[in-house]
Amino acid sequence: MVTFRELEAMKLIMKGASFESLPYHVFEDAAEYDATIASLEAKGYIADGKVTEMGLNDIEPYRVKNAIVMAAGGGDISSKSVYSLPKGLYVKDGETLIERQIRQLKEAGIQDITVVVGYKQEMYFYLVEKCGVELAVNVAPTKGNILSLNAVGVSLDSTYICNCDNYFVDNPFSSYEHSAFHATQYKEDTSKELVVRKNHGGRILEVFTTNEPGECIYGHAYMDPAFSYRFSKLLAEQINTFRVDMLFWEEFVSRNIDDLDMFARSYSPDFLLEFDSVQEIQNIDGLFMDNVSAKVNEKICAILDCQPDEIMDIQILQKGLTNILFTFVVKGTKYIFRYPGDFSQAFIYRDREVRAQQLAAKAGSDTTYVYIDESGCKMSEFRANCHDLSDVYYKDVDFMCEVARSIRRMHDQSIGMEDWEDFYNDPMESSDALMRLASQMKGNLFQRFAKDHERINKLYEYTKKDGFELRMCHNDINADNVLVTDTTMDIIDWEFAGYNDPAYDFGRVIGDYDCDDPDVATIVSAYLGHECSEIERLHFLAYAAIHNYYYFNWALYVESIGNSSRDWMIFFYRQVQKFMNYCLPRYEQIYGEI
C-alpha cells in the first residue's frame, strides 16, 4: 500500500520536480524527502530516478477519474455589475477562467469533466463542443451549492470538485491523489469565508463561520472513492430534510464529519485566487478591465480622448445599492465611473436623470459632471479629501442653508422647460408602482398599509392647494449625496430626479429636524429667498412626509427582490408618521376636510 508521502514523492519524480516546488506542505525537510525516496527504491517503485512499472501499477487505484466544475452560481455578482457574463466566463489574458481550469485538468490527464450550470446556463453550452465537457443543470442555483453536487451524485468517484471562479497561477491538478482533501488558505479576514478546525494530522473536524483569523475553505477539493460513496449516500438520505438544500457542500460535510474523512491542504496565498464579490475581482491582475464591456471601455476612451492602456489604477468601490462604481486615473486625473445594476431599472428613469444632471452642471450645483447617458453610464471627476458631514448635516443651519441655495440654483435652471411633461414625476404614482412590485412577493401591501396610504394621499391633495410651481428636482438629497471639500460643494447622484414639487427635494434636508424647530423656517427661507410664511413652512414639512413615504416603498421593493435595505425601511416609516401626524391636522384647519 502506498502512503500519502510516497505518492507525493512519486508524483514529483514523474514531473521531474523537486519537493521544494510543492505549493502545499508534505515533507518537513530534505531529509524526510530523501528517506521517502529511499523507501520507494527499496520497494522497487523507483529505479534510476524513474517510477517503475510496478510503481505505476500500484498507484493506479489512486488515479483521478473525473472532475466536476461548479458554475451554476454567479448571479450575485453579474446581476449588479459591469459584467454581463457569468463569472466562469470572465477573461484573463485572452482565456476564460473556466476554460483555463478545464485546460489545466486535461493537462493533468483528466478528460472526463462535467460542468454544472445554472445562472445564464446557455452561455456555457459552447464548452461541450469546444472543450469536450459534459453539462449538468442545477435547477435552483440561488440555493446552496450542495444542489450542484446533488445534480451529479452518480458521477462522484475519484473526483476533483472545482469552482469556476478559481484562478490558479500554476496547475494544481494531478493524475493521482491519495485521499480526500479540500484546499485551504490562512486569512486574517474570515468574515465571508468558511473556516476549518482540524486535528494534528490535518483531518477536518469542523467547518464553521467566524470573524477570527483562521484557515479557510478556499479553492478546489478532491473526493476519493470511499469518501464519494459515503457522501452520495448521506446526501441522498438528507437532501429533502429541512434547509439542507441551502448549504454549501462543505457545510454538509461538516454536519456529517464523523462519517466523512477529509483533510485540509493549505496553499500559499499567491498560488490560488478566487472571488465571491465584485470587490475581490481586483485580486486578479487585469481581470477587471478585461471584462468591462467593450461599450464601457470604448466610452471612457472616447470621452477622455485616451487609449485603453492609459486607464490606470482601477479600484472597485463597495458603494451603492443600485450601482457598481469604480474609479480610475487617466492622464493624472482621477475619475469615477458608474455602471447601473439590473434591478435599478424598476424605479430609475434615466432620461430624467440625464436632464437633471445636465441642468445641475449648468447651474454649478454639480461641478463633478463629465458624462452621462440614458443607459445609466456616468462619469464624474473624483473629489478627494471630502469633508465628513456628520457634524454639520442637520446640525449647522448655515451649512444647510447653503445646501438649500444650491438646490434653488438647480431648480431655477428648469424654469420654462417646454418638455416638462416628459419628465413629470407624480410621487404618489411612483410610490404606488413600487408597492405593487413589492406586493408580488410580500402579499397585498396596499391592504396592510391601507390607513397610511389613505392619509398620505390626503396630505398630497392638500399640498396641491398651496400653489407651488413644479421644477426639475434631485429627489434624493442626503448627506451621502453632498460632497464638500475646502473649495467646492457638489450635489451628486441624480438617479431619482423628476419634474415635481420643489419641496420634495427637502425630505432629507429638513427631515431630521423637529417639526417646530425654527431652523426649518430658516432653511426654507434660504431656499425661497424671503422669510417663509406659515403655509410655505407647512408645505415643505408635508413634502418631508411624502418624500419619506416614497422611500419607504423603495425599501419594501428592495427587500422583496432579496436585497437588504438594512434599517432604512423602519427609518422611513417613522419619518412618514412624524411629519404626517404634524401636517394633516394643520392642513385641515386651513383648508377644511377633503
In a few lines, what is going on in this structure?
This protein is an alpha+beta fold.
Description:
The chain is of the alpha+beta class. 38% of the residues lie in helices and 18% in strands. It contains 19 helices and 24 strands. It has a seven-stranded mixed β-sheet. The protein has a five-stranded antiparallel β-sheet with strand order 16-17-18-20-19. A two-stranded antiparallel ribbon has the order 1-2. Strand 4 (91-92) and strand 5 (95-96) form a beta hairpin. Helix 16 packs across helix 19 (568-591). The longest helix is centred in the C-terminal third of the chain and has 27 residues, at 534-560. It is elongated and about 100 Å long.
Strand content: 15-25%
- Rg (CA only): 30 Å
Please mark out the parts with pLDDT under 50 across 5 or more consecutive residues, or reply none. Answer: 77-83
- Kindly report the average pLDDT value: 91
The share of residues in helices is: 25-40%
Major sheet: size, sense and barrel closure? 7 strands, mixed
Distance between the termini: 91 Å
Shape: elongated
Q: Strand order within the widest sheet? A: 7-6-3-8-13-10-14
> Which structural class fits the helix and strand makeup?
alpha+beta
Task: Count the beta strands.
Answer: 24
Helices and strands, with pairings:
Blueprint: H1 4-15, H2 30-43, E1 46-47, E2 50-51, H3 53-59, E3 66-71, H4 75-78, E4 91-92, E5 95-96, H5 97-107, E6 112-117, H6 126-131, E7 134-137, H7 146-150, E8 159-163, E9 166-168, E10 181-187, E11 195-198, E12 204-208, E13 214-223, H8 225-238, H9 249-255, E14 263-266, E15 272-274, H10 287-291, H11 294-304, E16 312-317, E17 323-330, E18 333-340, H12 350-363, E19 369-372, E20 378-381, H13 397-412, H14 427-442, H15 445-448, H16 450-464, E21 471-473, E22 482-484, E23 489-491, E24 498-500, H17 518-528, H18 534-560, H19 568-591
Parallel strand pairs: 3-6, 3-8, 6-7, 10-14
Antiparallel strand pairs: 1-2, 4-5, 8-13, 9-15, 10-13, 11-12, 16-17, 17-18, 18-20, 19-20, 21-24, 22-23
Helix pairs in contact: 1-2, 12-13, 13-17, 14-18, 16-18, 16-19, 18-19
